[in-house]
Design a protein that fits this description.
The protein is globular and about 55 Å long. By secondary structure, it is of the alpha/beta class. It is built from 11 helices and 13 strands.
Length: 310
């Protein structure tokens, strides 16, 4: 059986579909209020802050995917993520299950350095620090042979349905609502985005590849990177519409953060929007050459078709 911890998010849902399509019908979905994705899914309600509930959630599993996301709340991240990771590691160790951890890039340097699996952690704020802490915690357990696990790391999302991320919030969702688009700090720096169905497909593939374990993988991205302005121009071509956008200044976040919590929470991540963001997935591409990466044009075409109800 393969179990997804944190199954209600976009990554968890797409992962469940991919596992069903290509790997197994024995899938358990775990969250506080889990919902089936496939008809054959088993659901299990659990709070991963509780060790015993975590152990029960993992019991009987061969492979466990940790795709849990928390709201962008520093206090919540600092208090919850380390406990959840310790509980999940302990549960997998108890039941001899492999662990696939779906990670992000918050612990990386927020500069124009090319980011690979070997890039050293240099977090700038508490969210990055806690992400570095839990990734390091898992890497240490792997090194000590306490657990067989793998880290799957993804940059900023864009994608269909309820995909969450700044590009979806400020560009994709604005297109859906026919509102003015927004760009963070600069429209001229290269960005690296990952199409969420690709992220889930790649995570399932890594999780079901025995020799992929005990290491870190960057999940596959379209290497034809675009600036925000180029991304919007491409969207105009795909949607056959003219989109107006404005660039949000640092002042907007500083002043807005005094009144709006979301604007305050994002400030730690702003330096990455002042320069090129170059996340590479060469290691994955070499190991899995048959994996087809969705181009930005193809992703936008899917979003266009989704909006039309196709």
């Amino acid at each position: 059986m393969q179990t997804i911890l944190g199954s209600n998010g976009q990554i968890g849902e797409e992962l469940a579909r991919e596992l069903k399509r290509h790997y197994t019908s024995e899938i358990r979905l775990v969250s506080r209020n889990p919902k089936k994705v496939n008809d054959t899914d088993a659901v299990f309600a659990a709070d991963l802050m509780d060790l015993e509930q975590s152990k029960e959630a993992v019991k009987g599993s061969d492979i466990v995917y940790l795709t849990l996301g928390l709201p962008l709340d520093t206090k919540l991240w600092v208090e919850h993520f380390p406990i959840i990771m310790r509980n999940v590691i302990a549960a997998c160790k108890t039941h001899k299950a492999k662990l696939v951890y779906f990670d992000n890039t918050y612990m990386y340097p927020q500069n124009s350095l090319t980011l690979t699996e070997e890039t050293a952690f240099e977090p700038l704020g508490p969210k990055g620090m806690v992400r570095a802490e839990i990734a390091s915690m898992l890497l240490e357990k792997i090194k000590l042979n306490h657990i067989e696990a793998v880290l799957c790391r993804a940059p900023e999302f864009y994608g269909p349905a309820k995909t969450q991320g700044f590009t979806n919030a400020l560009i994709i969702n604005k297109i859906r609502k026919e509102k003015k688009l927004r760009v963070i700090l600069s429209d001229s720096n290269l960005r690296t985005l990952i199409w969420t169905p690709d992220a889930s497909r790649a995570t399932a593939l890594i999780g079901n590849t025995p020799d992929a374990y005990n290491q870190t993988w960057h999940l596959p991205v379209d290497n034809n990177r675009l600036t925000s302005k180029q991304f919007i121009t491409l969207a105009e071509h795909v949607f056959d519409k003219k989109f107006h956008f404005s660039v949000l200044s640092i002042r907007t976040f500083k002043i807005g953060g005094l009144f709006v919590k979301a604007l305050k929470e994002i400030q730690e991540l702003l330096p990455r929007y002042t320069q090129d963001n170059i996340f590479v997935s060469t290691k994955f591409e070499k190991r899995f050459p048959e994996f087809r990466i969705t181009s930005y044009q193809e992703g936008l075409q899917c979003l266009r078709d989704e909006q039309k109800g196709n």
